[in-house]
């Protein structure tokens, strides 16, 4: 369970601040107050075999619902949390929650499922990230091989050596690793060769355009395979996209065509409906 952090360090507004800065600061103060409360929770989106549609695993996605009911998208609050130094607390909350969820799913008769968890650059930079990860796996008693950490390619461009080292340490603990949102960052293709990862995730943008132009998707699938990675397509929304991805040789997929991110009760219903 995440503990409230830096509660005493609220930010104050000043007259010369722009509206935008002010909105961000208000959001940050609310986020600090929300840390460790039930306003922050995780949902789970299935990842399926593209061929059969069967669930292979889940991805944990963080959600923040403010007391007024507003759902703040992670693309808005995660960068803010990173800048404010809150991300390691939020990150370990997600790691714990998702691994505990996986443990329950394994015990509920789904022993084959894996759990993918997004980790941010700030988390990887923490000097004790790896020992904390090892502790967490022991506490939640999940097999490391069932847990995958997702990092984005854009992080690699920032600090390639750190990224390389962390990916090696993560895999030495027995976890798997995925490169998320591939193709949207600005790192060169050769960066990928130096990163040891098990999966490559094609960014949703290339899946969205695949019916008009499949060239980038094809390139990412081929690149992944030539580096011995399994390729996952994000944001699969239509049967035609799934069909084209299968033709390209992409193995796995996630998207609204299969399932939306869900809370535990909805996930259990979805999994039960898939049972043969
Ligand atoms: P991501 O890891 O690439 O996650 C995929 C995003 O695509 C999710 O957005 C998911 O809800 C959305 N999505 C899935 N299928 C579809 C689809 O068929 N169509 C469309 N249009 N969207 C789809 P979400 O949950 O808003 O998360 C956005 C990003 O925030 C994530 O991108 C990830 O980078 C970050 N994030 C989320 N949770 C965490 C977390 O716990 N830790 C960290 N560090 N980052 C997180
Ligand atoms: Mg992800
Ligand atoms: Mg992604
Ligand atoms: Mg994405």
From TrEMBL:
It comes from the Bacteria. Residues 24-275 form the EAL domain. This is Diguanylate phosphodiesterase.
């Amino acid at each position: 369970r995440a503990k409230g952090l830096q509660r005493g360090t609220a930010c104050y507004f000043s007259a010369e601040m722009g509206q935008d800065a002010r909105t961000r600061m208000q959001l940050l103060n609310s986020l600090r107050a929300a840390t460790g409360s039930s306003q922050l929770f995780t949902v789970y989106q299935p990842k399926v075999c593209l061929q059969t549609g069967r669930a292979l695993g889940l991805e944990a996605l963080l959600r923040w619902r403010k007391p007024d009911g507003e759902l703040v998208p992670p693309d808005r609050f995660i960068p803010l949390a990173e800048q404010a130094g809150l991300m390691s607390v939020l990150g370990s909350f997600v790691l714990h929650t998702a691994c505990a969820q996986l443990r329950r799913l394994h015990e509920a008769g789904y022993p084959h499922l894996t759990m993918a968890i997004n980790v941010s650059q700030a988390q990887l930079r923490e000097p004790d990230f790896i020992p904390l990860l090892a502790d967490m796996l022991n506490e939640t008693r999940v097999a490391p091989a069932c847990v995958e950490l997702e990092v984005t390619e854009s992080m690699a461009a920032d600090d390639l050596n750190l990224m390389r080292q962390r990916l090696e340490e993560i895999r030495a603990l027995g976890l798997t690793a995925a490169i998320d949102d591939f193709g949207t960052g600005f790192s060169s293709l050769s960066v990928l060769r130096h990163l040891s990862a098990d999966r490559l995730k094609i960014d949703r943008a290339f899946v969205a355009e695949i019916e008009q132009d499949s060239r980038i998707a094809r390139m990412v699938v081929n690149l992944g395979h030539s580096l011995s990675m399994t390729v996952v397509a994000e944001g699969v929304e239509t049967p035609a996209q799934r069909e084209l991805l299968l033709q390209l040789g992409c193995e796995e997929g996630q998207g609204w065509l299969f399932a939306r991110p869900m809370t535990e009760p909805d996930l259990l219903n979805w999994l039960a409906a898939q049972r043969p």
